[in-house]
Amino acid sequence: MSSTMEVVRSLPAGDGITVVVAYLRTDISGASQARHRAAIEKFCVERGYRIVEWVAADLHRNAAPLMRLLTARDNAGAHAVVTPGADHLGSGVATISAVAYVITLEPPAIWWRGERLCDNEFPSRS
Asked: Is 81:73 a contact under the CB 8 Å cutoff?
């Protein structure tokens, strides 16, 4: 995933993120689930992020997957949610990015407070 590597290089080293929750929708990942997990793990290792919890959900089988994600984020005090793509969160990108950075690997993007940050710079948390 060369575009993932571009995001990795463009994020500042002192971005303040240390603890993350990884999230993927198994119904979207399908046969690519192992590849998506590996990409998230690699991204986090390269950045020095610690994955404190994985939330995997199937929208057709799991009730309220975004609520599970928010609860996991709150319980862990995670600074960010890392996911394969915004499609895994759907309209929940705005909800999740209201409380944590959302980092998508494909296409590479960083979301904060419902806004896609095109320049990949993290705003202050104040």
From this structure: yes
